[in-house]
Amino acid sequence: MGKVYIGVDVGGMSIKAGVVNINGEILFKKSCVTDGQNVDQFLKDTKTLLEEVVNEAKEKDLDPQGIGFGIPGMVDNNLGIINKMANIGGRDVPLKYYLKDLNLPIYLSNDANVAALAEQKFGVAKGMKHVILLTLGTGVGGGVIVNNQLYEGNQGKGAELGHTCLILNGRQCGCGRKGCLETYASASALLRLTREYMEKYKDSMMWEYCNNDINNVSGLTSFECAKKGDEAANKLIDEYIMYLGEGLLDFANIFRPEAFVIGGGISNQGEYLTNKLEEYLRKQNYGYEGAPESKVLIAKLKNDAGIIGAASLLME
Amino acid sequence: MGKVYIGVDVGGMSIKAGVVNINGEILFKKSCVTDGQNVDQFLKDTKTLLEEVVNEAKEKDLDPQGIGFGIPGMVDNNLGIINKMANIGGRDVPLKYYLKDLNLPIYLSNDANVAALAEQKFGVAKGMKHVILLTLGTGVGGGVIVNNQLYEGNQGKGAELGHTCLILNGRQCGCGRKGCLETYASASALLRLTREYMEKYKDSMMWEYCNNDINNVSGLTSFECAKKGDEAANKLIDEYIMYLGEGLLDFANIFRPEAFVIGGGISNQGEYLTNKLEEYLRKQNYGYEGAPESKVLIAKLKNDAGIIGAASLLME
């Protein structure tokens, strides 16, 4: 029987589970929708999904070694509970206890953490020992690999890189603090910034791109118009790169990673984004004169990163 | 022969070396002044001092296991070189090579790192596994202990906690960036803030405390007048606590330490300071709702922390 690892990617809308081999390949996957609000239903759905996955694995002569979870929220892996979870709600949900009949080791971590692990073990940062991942989506998620190992912070509750202060007493963040990196560097922040620039620059190409309706603004608006030479869009992108770049410099000064890996919606900009960020870091001496270089890379496992990373929690 | 460890605390004005036993006790120490500018002289002085220390140790039937250095600057421990050093100058100074005739293992680290190690192994944070130390002096030095081990960042060049951005495009920092924590939370920053408040509040008790001469401002001025109830001084201290507190919240969100240890001149304020900081952290939920508590403690090894911490680099 081949040893395999089950990875579960919990999202706001769906729960995806995959069976992954030691090479980080997904052998098969299954998913179900969640109603997005009810914790009891979430537990039930998760258990049913995992029973199906485990059974199918055994039918295929595979030997699951355990189940890893990437949770959009705060977890306590020692106690096997989800302290809190975006979208689904609930407090201190005893996931591990609820799944005890599956008789498999359970490892809980946060979604950005497992994405970092996936990219470092099997993705774009394979072979590197020191890696920082930032997912730029609704928020800014952070994952830290130190010396080949996932660093989750004491009690598994650290590595919240999106919730470090970039502008003291700046924008209100959902976390309760003000001026967090997340409020300036997330995809949501880019949309807000795009709307602000459009209001200010009425002759910007961005208006045409949005069919003169500001409600059509997307993560592409500013980037695509900047590439076409629109002045306002280029100014906007420079501002956004500064926010993100200053965040990277902070983490460079703390961790000195070999590479930053950028994931989430914004990462679709590829080299256009990484070239600008690398230029910003280089100009600022990677945070400190004489400091070693950090590359900027685009995450490559995309939608599979959650499953692969969660499964990787159980490997070795 | 008892096993001992030699710790060297390199300062701008003097080089101090001590022989430390496995319990973190300094058995004896020696020091010499440095001329503060000349690298060749620094190397020569260091070697002479260490030859004397090693000889005296052997006369006392002690068996030195190696020499650790706490350097005020950037080092490359693998190559055994000091990349750059505050006050003394020089670039990529081959300290390890220069001391090769001593035939002892050499370990180079930065001064705040070794202070953190000293406090965690033998000082106020003894018994804790996750500790962040900040020294508040001319600058803000940072030291990180993760899971009982010193974390120096990749290539030993990280943990520069004072050089994370608190206010985007804020005050110019000596490191080249703008708005670093160091420019708001160091002792030097407190002095600047004190002078600013005095210029603004001409009736503040701080003027009397300084004999009406702003050149007499010290690190005590604001704290002592705040304790006596001076309104301007209390406002000033609240602002300073906010700067420092927001920095601690950033590191709480990244590391979730069991304790923050405060060293340097400002730490003489003791519980008056730690109570205010703990209150600030508590009000902000330690960075994140549901996050575990981090204590705030005052470093206790004072001037010996450098020697003890540097010696500790070689232990185990």
CA distance, first residue to last residue of chain A: 17 Å
What would you call the quaternary organization?
Answer: homodimer
Encode the helix/strand succession of chain A as letters: EEEHEEEEHEHEEEHHHHHEHEH
Query: What structural category do the secondary elements of chain A indicate?
Result: alpha/beta
Task: Offer a quick outline of the entry.
Chain A is of the alpha/beta class and 316 residues long. Chain A is built from ten helices and 13 strands.
Question: What does this protein look like?
Answer:
- Two copies of one chain form a homodimer.
- Chain A has 316 residues and is an alpha/beta fold.
- Chain A contains ten helices and 13 strands.
- In chain A, the strands form three sheets. Chain A has a five-stranded mixed sheet.
- In chain A, a hairpin with a 3-residue loop joins strand 9 (131-136) and strand 10 (140-146).
- The longest helix of chain A is centred in the last third of the chain and has 25 residues, at 231-255.
- Chain A starts with a strand and ends with a helix.
- The model of chain A has no long low-confidence stretch (mean pLDDT 96).
- Chain A binds chain B through residues 74, 83-84, 129-130, 146, 151, 153-155, 157-161, 163-168, 170, 175-177, 242-243, 246-247, 249-250, 253-258, 284-285, 287-292, and chain B through 74, 83-84, 129-130, 146, 151, 153-155, 157-161, 163-168, 170, 175-177, 242-243, 246-247, 249-250, 253-258, 284-285, 287-292.
